[in-house]
Amino acid sequence: MVNAAWDSGRRCRGQVTPDAYVVARGGSVVSSEINPKTVMTVTTSSGTREQPVPEELRDAPVLDSAQASSLARLGERIEQLYGVPMDVEWAVHDGQFVILQARPITNLPAPREVWNDSLAGDYLWTSGNVSEAVPGVMTPVTWSVIQELAMPAIGGHPTSGNIGGRFYLNLSTSMAIAPLSGW
User: Fold this and answer.
1) Do the domain assignments include residue 100?
2) Cβ atoms within 10 A of the Cβ of 21, count?
3) Model pTM greater than 0.90?
4) CA distances to 21, 123, 151, 163 from 176, in Å
5) Is the distance from CB of 53 to CB of 46 less than 8 angstroms?
6) Are residues 45 and 78 located together in one domain of the fold?
7) Residue 10 and residue 43 in contact, taking contact as beta carbons nearer than 8 Å
8) Quick check: helix, strand or coil at residue 98?
9) What is the H or E stretch that residue 171 is in?
10) What residues make up the domain containing 71?
11) CB 25 within 8 A of CB 19
């Protein structure tokens, strides 16, 4: 996502709600939210000062679609360089984007655990009669207990799995060892 606030090319310092552009990887703008801007910071001979944004610019988008796409692609390049999602601060100088700083994003939510062991391989899974013992979706605590009590993998193949929060048995593993046991 690209956030942009019109601030006469200076830092916003959190005093305006920035425009927000959602840009897909590759650069196409998916959506944008243009917010009103009421204050801007301008350069003076002694530093900076705040002044009202001119009426004709208050509801104007900060970036056009091409600029948002270009900025997002620049952000993707920075992410590739560092190998992690980055928070990038930028400005525009003489019509060109200038990167002020970039740092890893530290407040991303933890990746969600995917409870779909059917993705682990081409196995035949069944929940036959297991649903009587574990009738609903398991909590992570229940799943951790079941993992401790379940049979260990055989030849690197799981004997049980978790699919959508429900306990499943791997029939492929059982059927592969059945001839060995005389079933």
Assistant:
1) yes
2) 25
3) no
4) 54, 11, 15, 21
5) no
6) yes
7) yes
8) strand
9) helix 171-181
10) 2-104
11) no
Q: How many domains does the chain have?
A: 2
> Nearest CA to 104 among 126, 124, 83, 86?
86
| CATH code for the domain in which residue 84 is found | 3.30.470.20
Longest Cα–Cα distance in the chain: 93
Cα torsion 96, 29, 40, 94 to 10°: value is 10
Residue type, 156: G
> Is 6's pLDDT higher than 50?
no
Structure tokens at 139: 């909590």
Query: At residue 5, does pLDDT exceed 50?
Result: no
Above 80 in pLDDT, residue 2? no
Local structure of 83: helix, strand or coil:
coil
Q: Which of 127, 133, 124 is nearest to 162 (CA)?
A: 127
What is the spatial distance between Cα 146 and Cα 161, in angstroms, rounded to a whole number?
A: 10
The one-letter amino acid code at 147 reads Q
Q: Give the integer Cα–Cα distance in Å for 95 and 110.
A: 37
Neighbours of 41 (CB within 10 A): 19
Confidence check: pLDDT of 81 > 70: yes
